[in-house]
Amino acid sequence: MATFLYRLGRLAFRRRHFVALIWVALLALAGFGAASAPSAGNTSFTVPGTEAQKAFDLLEQRFPGMSAAGGTARVVFKAPAGEKMTDAANKNTVQKTVDALADGPEVASVADPYQADAVSKDGTIAYASVKYKVPGMELEDGTREVLEETAQDARDAGLTVEVGGDALLAQPETGTGEIIGIAVAAVVLVITFGSLVAAGLPLLTALIGVGIGVSAITALASTLELGSTTSTLATMIGLAVGIDYALFVVSRYRAELAAGREREEAAGRAVGTAGSAVVFAGLTVVIALVGLSVVNMPMLTKMGVAAAGTVAIAVLIALTMIPALLGYAGRRVKPAGEKSKFLGGARAARKAASAKANMGTRWARFVVRRPIAVLLLGVVGLGAVAVPAVSMELGIGDDSSLPTSTTQRRAYDLLSEGFGPGFNGPLVVVVDAKASDDPDAAFTEVTDQIKGLKNVATVMPAAPNKAGDTATITVIPDAEPSSVTTEELVHGIRDAGTEIKADTDADVLVTGTTAMNIDVAQKLNDALIPYLALVVGLAFLLLIVVFRSILVPLKAALGFLLSVMAALGAVVAVFQWGWMADLVGVEETRPIVAIMPIFMIGVVFGLAMDYEVFLVTRIREAYIHGEKASQAVVTGFNHSARVVTAAAVIMIAVFGGFIGSSEAMVKMIGFGLAIAVLFDAFIVRMAIVPAVLALLGRKAWWLPKWLDRVLPNVDVEGEGLRTQGDSAHSSGSSGSGDSKGADPDEERELVKF
To answer: 468: which residues sit within 8 A by CB, 6+ positions away?
Structure first.
């Protein structure tokens, strides 16, 4: 592996014009595809294998005229203080509003509040339901404008008017945090490299990689039904890993220059060593993201695959475009230990070498001297932070998760005030009586059984289809949709359905947004253990190949579990318990978005293995070159601690930038990933890992002889490069990076590989 990547790096350095042209062409092609692609349209949310999904599919078959995919809006009216919605003036205003809505474009139907019994018992609140012919995401701007203008006219007449539903669904806003994150990354890179040119390379390549990835997602959004969250998360992850992967290659390149190598040779060795770590680190991230498909939830699978594609692009760019750009940069990229004149003048590498040990070295020596104390402190601290994760509650975001400044959230609150907390989460009970001898009797029995259950506020009469073999019964719980009592009601209806099936041969299914939320949470809980087993198992095998050790991969997996549980605990404490919620803009506590934990686990696992590979590879490199186990830890930190720290700070800044998003899931994932990287990089990898390696000593690198013979030698440390390049290739490079023409034999070797 190292030899192949070494040759690839040298080839990309010499053929930089060709490599740069390929990546620019790919960016242009992806951009053209995104610009010419149709709008994304509606993104369907399906959860195969759940009762709620089965009921929804049955409704599509038996009630074809329901247009379940059409957009909806609820225009909610509240009378001024001391007045009623049944007063003549207010009633006249509502009637004008209903007539105006009915005349609007793309409207299928409008329900008059006074005919549909949509006025609260105290008479102060009413609502009109609007059904559109097309999905909410596909509504024309003119349709939304008519809806907003009509609501404003009613406000001008003296009523409080808010609009809920998906008709006014807006794209999530990330605010300025994303830009701030990139700016912080730029500052960290400048400090790390002491050169504006060297600092600019990781940023440039990361932006190109994200541009290609997100443009491709946009181009395929309509065909594959990819939502806006998919591109947002791909941007988040692509930026973070793109900057980090390029950072490691450029850092190793500067170290090779400081060792006296010519620029082309340094580029080859940087890609052969750091590039090998990038490949395996990237593979762990891709495995974790693609592994989300085991949940069998199409939306989650698409998000994972799209993000994995962006990570794969980041790896390829780090291996090819970075050495090509280093060729263009020439002497403007200084050896390690030197700064550009603009940032304080050049310092000789020998002066830096004679200076006192860097902070990474001093920290490693401290940990090696006191490994037990550091290990206990790290494990106990993360364990304490993880405690809130035990009480995590899952749900799917609805209008209640939106800021109170939005009309959708205010409409939600008005409906809860006027019609009870369960009104915003009605349950739809579908009775399939096709196999029953007396469908009407089955419908009546189901209705009576539900009325006798606890936690029920209202049960609507059964509404049969034209064939009379299927009916829907709307049930309003007496508690809010995310409450435990509502979940108990769903299970109670399903348990009663089992008895009804035995008596009437009619199937009773529960669906609706609330029931879907409950089923999704259960499905994700059931999939968590198989997902962890698959991802951790595959990565464990991969790390055995990389490190040729059993205990090091095991330590890596256990360290990941510590950091991810602590991160989930922090998410619960902030978003569910409300601790320090104001600092991240959380206006109201609520259950954790259901798909967030498992998605975060996948991403965090991949990133945790990134740091494990980058850090431990340098430690193993020192060990196999003859150093004692404890000294190898110190040497590894001497070479990599500064860069790993910079990479972690960059990731934290990029992920933290998405905390400003208006979408609850993006905000939660941004916070969760930022805090997880903080825990994993600075506590697990920088403290617990060296402590464990110091305690294990030589045993850390033990591998059974039979397994050593079976495993392929991927040579991540670049041992095969120790005697290669210095004599065979040193004459082919110039200090300015202007060598011309590729070695034909070298190119043939690449083709063979």
So the answer is: 439, 440
b (16+ CB within 10 A) / e for 428-444: bbbbbbeebeebeebbe
The answer to whether 318 touches 246, Cβ cutoff 8 Å, is: yes
Cα→Cα distances 231→226, 402, 503, Å? 8, 20, 50
Distance of CA 517 to the CA centre of its chain: 19
- Residue by residue, DSSP assigns 270-290 as HHHHHHHHHHHHHHHHHHHHH
**432 forms bridges with which residues in the sheet?**
470, 507
Apex 309 CA angle, 306 and 313, nearest 5: 145
- 308, 312, 318, 323: CA torsion to nearest 10: -160
Tell me 293's DSSP state.
G
Long-range contacts of 719-727 (CB under 8 A, 24+ apart): 719/2, 719/624, 720/2, 720/3, 721/2, 721/3, 721/6, 721/269, 721/272, 721/273, 724/3, 724/6, 725/6, 725/261, 725/265, 725/268, 725/269, 726/261, 726/265
Report the DSSP beta bridge partners of residue 110: 130
Return the structure tokens found at 542.
């991969």
CA dist 276 → 9, 316, 494 (Å):
11, 12, 54
Residues in the chain, overall count = 753
What single-letter amino acid sits at 667?
K
CA distances from 471 to 61, 200, 430, 439, 694 (A): 12, 63, 6, 9, 68
Query: What's the pLDDT tens digit per position in 166-196?
Result: 787 655 555 555 677 778 888 888 887 777 7
Q: Which two tokens stand for residue 147?
A: 């809806």
pLDDT for 366 equals 93
Read off the pLDDT of residues 11-54 as tens digits, 9 standing for 90 and up.
999 999 999 999 999 999 998 988 887 765 555 667 888 898 89
Q: Is residue 475 helix, strand or coil?
A: strand
| Distance separating alpha carbons of residues 222 and 231, to the nearest angstrom | 13
Residue 187 near residue 203, CB atoms below 8 Å: no
Specify burial of residue 741 (Cβ count, 10 A radius: 0-12, 13-18, 19+): exposed
Can you tell me which residue has the tokens 């590989």? 753
Give one DSSP letter per residue of 61-108, joined into a string: HH-GGG-TTS-EEEEEEEPPTT--TTSHHHHHHHHHHHHHHHTSTTEE
Annotate 499-526 with b (16+ C-beta within 10 A) or e (fewer).
ebbeebbbbbbbbbbbbbbbbbbbbbee
Give ∠ CA 379-384-389 in degrees, rounded to 5. Answer: 115
Q: Which residues pair with 592 in a beta bridge?
A: 394
Tokens standing for residue 615: 């850090």
The three state secondary structure string of 173-230 is: CCCCHHHHHHHHHHHHHHHHHCCHHHHHHHHHHHHHHHHHHHHHHHHHHHHHCCCHHH
| Global pTM exceeds 0.85 | no
Which helix (H) or strand (E) covers residue 250, if one does?
Answer: helix 228-258
Chain centre to alpha carbon of residue 454: 38
